[in-house]
What does this fold into?
Amino acid sequence: MKLYKEDFAGFSQELGSWFVGFGFAIVSDHGVEKSIIDHALDQAKAFFALPLETKARYTVKGGSGQRGYTGLGVETAKDHTFADLKEFWHHGRTLPDGHRYNAMMPANVAMPEIPGFDASQQAMFEAFDALGKQILRAIAMFLALPIDYFDEKVALGNSVLRTLHYPALEAGVTPGAIRAGAHGDINVITLLLGAQEPGLQLLDKEGNWQSVTAPEGCVVINIGDMLARLTNDLLPSTIHRVINPMPERAGIARYSAPFFLHFSPDVLIKTLPMNGPPNYKPIRAQDFLEERLREIKLA
Ligand SMILES: O=C(O)CCC(=O)C(=O)O
Ligand SMILES: [Fe+2]
It folds into this structure.
């Protein structure tokens, strides 16, 4: 993102053309401090190493997995039979008590078991929230919209930082189950932080699976369904998955951290006049989210 400051129009053009072609882009020099990322990932690893009965205490019953811990065997990609081979922690936006969005954005779950965990999640959330807004300014420019087009729409976005643990698979798995079944993301854009282990693949326009490998320290960004709806699929929400490791790496766990950037709950996602006749009907962001959470078995 050196180019972001030096040649904003050039940056936005390049970013946009990657999105149009693949729905994905890889960004270096994003400016989020390495110490914030490393600390949050280390704290998360320590959490996932806790006994299952301890972790399970941090699951919010009836909370649709939107905050705290979601164990193995819950999230199931849309139209898939087997649940994904993953567990995760969700940390969302902190709002003041009595805020009109409290029901849709519940308080984060405190996790005192690992000292400093909560603060590390909050720091990472804030860093990615800010980075996401910068990326959206470049996307607005690419779409010939006012540069601040997205600012207000995401200011109180129902965004969530997901820290993922895909456990080692040496014990074997149910045939057909994979780390993350093929899916499109629900949200506006996703900022994905570096898994050291391979496995992420995207489905390209020719119908071939392509590995997504980002140099260390880079952020992988992809378009979610909400932005695909808004742009009438000019910026496509590309199907992606995380495949199981080769036998020689089956004993190695995989960690990653996507930040799902969402619109504010009340935003009406109404397809803009671009890319041909509209493919979608208008829908409120929160209604769309709730519908999709049911489809992936979180709600
Ligand atoms: O772990 C990854 O690399 C990708 C995760 C993902 O696609 C998701 O959680 O939506
Ligand atoms: Fe995803």
